[in-house]
Amino acid sequence: MANHDTSSECGGRSPRRYAVALCLAAGATLLATTTSGQDIEHDPIHYSTATPHNAVAELAHRLAQGAVQLEYDPQRGYLRSLLRALDVPESSQVLVFSKTSLQRERISPQTPRAIYFNDDVLIGSCIGGRVLEISAADDALGTVFYTLNQKRAAQPAVERQTESCMLCHSSSANRGFPGHLVRSLQVDDDGLPLLAHGSFRTDHASPLAERWGGWYVTGTSGNQKHMGNTIFHETAAPAASDNAPGVNLTDLNDRFKTSLCLTPHSDIVALMVLEHQAGMLNRLARATLETRLALHYERDMNQALGQPPDEPSESARRRIRSAGDAVVEYLLFHDEARLTDRVSGTSTFAADFAARGPRDSQGRSLRDFDLTTRLFRYPCSYLIYSRAFDTLPGEVKGHVYQRLWEILNGHGGDKCPGQLSPADRAAILEILRATKRDLPAYWTAPPTAAP
């Protein structure tokens, strides 16, 4: 997104330290990567010039046609109206106070940045911000980034961002594909990351003790410590295990003026879901782009060798299977960090999230929470119902379904993700059979049937 001259905004701090801190993106979930060895600007991707197909692109078209209008609020601009238009619940709000985003000069512990999300879209909003920052899971491009100007206009327009976001928000950790990143690190009283103390990339496998540095967290986690709600000091940064005042906090009013945000919450359950979702959407995006690139390579090789265009190449198919295996492993919460105490949020997020279903005839859903020993009651990601999953290329989607079928029927082999009990496998299999459209026919055959 927008690139700024950091030397004029350092407030007396080292310009180099400030610039490096920005690129770390400690709390930025709208993080795109550049190519890092993956040439996505040429055939077959053409990332910057290709026409996007996602929920935000569709909204932009409806806005341009006058079929939808966004309402302007003098205090919050188009935020609330945009959330409604994209079906993003306000209860999903989480708050980050590290200076790690497009509008970093507006972010601090007194003015945190709010992030809202549903299964397909993430929206970032700064207090008094110039723009709303948006990312969307795209049918063919992985992740696409947009902004919406917060200045009142007769016809507000969503604008795609292809250069400025990529310049600052780049990460080899995402293997060169546009995606998201959630980080945790120690932040000072201005919101600047303390780089000397390191950082953590967080997802559902991260111990709670490593999570939420630079974030506000409302909710309880019992005796489980985390890094949230805490200002650290460069000379004597306390360990996360010493962060007793920042744990089990249910009210943020003594930290900043919460009325500046849509809600007073930065719900711990919403944070845990967001961390899982960022990792899952990244793997789905990589699977889409890896498959497109592998098939393009396969066709080029076949042409060079004088073979039929669709002649399978083992190297290309191995690349596709590898991307699909990464989806399956994460989908089934492989290596998920175990909870040792009950986790409870402060908002309606958990109820709102679970209510989105779908449910089988026994009332079970992959959106049902556990929050005592793990995040979800049934450890298979709800994002199997998402647009990002449904639009996977057929070659990788077929492999994902086959591996899922094998694992859920107890035929996963040595590479089967751990932590799935026989009861887990049976429940997930039954729920998916009842609720997931486009399952291959062998999913409904007797358990001994092979794909």
Notes on the protein architecture:
- Mean pLDDT is 87; it is low at 1-37.
- 28% of the residues lie in helices and 9% in strands.
- The radius of gyration is 22 Å and the shape is globular.
- With 451 residues, the protein is α+β, with helices and mostly antiparallel strands.
- It has ten helices and nine strands.
- It folds into two domains: 6-268, no CATH class; 283-444, no CATH class.
- Helix 5 packs antiparallel against helix 6 and helix 6 (314-331) packs across helix 9 (394-408).
- It has a seven-stranded antiparallel sheet, with helices on both faces.
What are the SSEs and their pairings?
Elements: H1 15-24, H2 55-65, H3 79-85, E1 94-96, E2 113-117, E3 121-125, E4 131-138, E5 142-149, E6 158-161, H4 164-168, E7 183-185, E8 199-201, E9 215-216, H5 268-305, H6 314-331, H7 349-354, H8 387-390, H9 394-408, H10 422-435
Antiparallel strand pairs: 1-2, 1-9, 2-3, 3-4, 4-5, 5-6, 7-8
Instruction: Name the helicity range.
Output: 25-40%
The overall number of domains is 2
Number of helices: 10
Radius of gyration: 22 Å
